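FAQ: What does a ligand-bound record look like?

Like this one, built around xanthosine-5'-monophosphate:
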Amino acid sequence: MDREKIIVIDFGGQYNQLVARRVRECSVYCEIYSYRTDLKQIKAMKPKGIILTGGPNSCYEEGAPSCGEELFDLGVPVLGLCYGAQLMMHVLGGHVCKAPVREYGRVEVMVDTSTKLFHDVTPLTVCWMSHNDYIKKMASGFRMIAHTADCPVAAAQNTSRNLYAIQFHPEVLHTVEGAKILHNFVYDICGCVGDWRMDSFVETSVQAIRRKVGQGKVLCALSGGVDSSVAAVLLSRAVGSQLTCVFVDHGLLRKNEGDEVEEVFGPNGPYDLHFIRVNAQERFYRKLAGVAEPEEKRKIIGEEFIRVFEEEAKKIGKVDFLVQGTIYPDVVESGLGGESAVIKSHHNVGGLPDYVDFKEIIEPLRDLFKDEVRRVGLELGIPEKLVFRQPFPGPGLGIRIIGDVTEEKVKMVQEADAIYREEMAAAGLDRLPDQYFAALTNMRSVGVMGDERTYDYAIALRAVNTVDFMTAEASQIPWEVLQRVTNRIVNEVSHVNRVLYDITSKPPGTVEFE
Ligand code: XMP
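The answer part, i.e. the structure of the complex:
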């Protein structure tokens, strides 16, 4: 039987991946497609329901993202959110225009709790609004089912056609009962039963991988990050020692990280696979000597990585399959799924590396969001420490050292970073920021140590909260913790005499410190 599916049609809003995540949190599988996707294709996927997302445009302006009226005649329930709600009304003959009062932020919404959509929701509920336009007149056949002081149609329904429109954003956590509203839509309106579960994902993936791989040989580049680790364990569960994992230690990892990866995946670890660790530190340091420009460092590290990996792959001989830890946001952000404006250059989706001789690529996590990958990791028994590891860039500490990279500087930043992580864990804060780390500024300045004058480096500490890493805010780390980290770094790490905390948001800053 086919897995039931909800389709999110993306009109370019910033919360669109969140919509799909929230639906999956209801145990219902969900995929994102651009509004440009052919309606025939959408229909062929036999969705149980369709959700139209928010977006930055005004639906009545020329050239604004739109959809055909036929979308509402598929016989599939449709829920429009914000822009999606306005577009539904606009296309079906209602009137949308600039609102006399722009609503932004938390707003109290009065909802009709006798409707299926707002079943069990409190009559006066706090929701997140962000709109300049509003629905002035509903399309015919619709009834208003929620309003606010400034917004006469905060939600509307046409039950005979199974169409629903919501002006606010149920997908963001500030909408206190948003999860309940989406749950009502997918279960009570679309009739989903909730067949999306991580244990069954593991079971079905293992079976599918076995069928695909047969007796073939599989190669995986293991970085020690969450995605490649989970992919490797899934493959090892499916085909055991037909899998070879190559782990390149480029000398730009965090303190002890190489050994930690080896402990889990190496011959003394619990998994059945061939593990090859390549200690290529010297090679990378040599190539990086004297290079200060961050993009050039990235390029050198990337190319050298490929070369090392290629040499190892040649030793193994012909392999049949190459494993990649691509996950769903990579697919969407590469423009293959939704309408995301920002395309990250370091995501290698669909591009097949030509330096290894193989038949086919396997991407077992291609349909999963990060939190689902983590759940699969736990399901597979991977240690929590690894499963909840924070994101770490491929070029590693190479882009956390401003200016040229040397072995001594790598040691400094490794030590400082380890202290920072230790103290954050001791304070119970290690899972709070989405990413945090120490970096080495290229600044040296005068200090005093005992009776001596010093002229040493400054370490920068960074910690950010973010939903999608496209924008981020600096985390408010308690002063005492920052003080403890600072004291320990200046006392324990030689050649560091100052510690700075970076409170810049992104934009205008970036997450990394390079
Ligand atoms: P920025 O610094 O671009 O970081 O705000 C956003 C997220 O992307 C990660 N990042 C990278 N990851 N290779 C990677 O694999 C890279 O070159 C790279 N640059 C940034 C960064 O760690 C953060 O999570």
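Follow-up question: can I read anything off the structure? Yes, for example: The mean pLDDT is 93.
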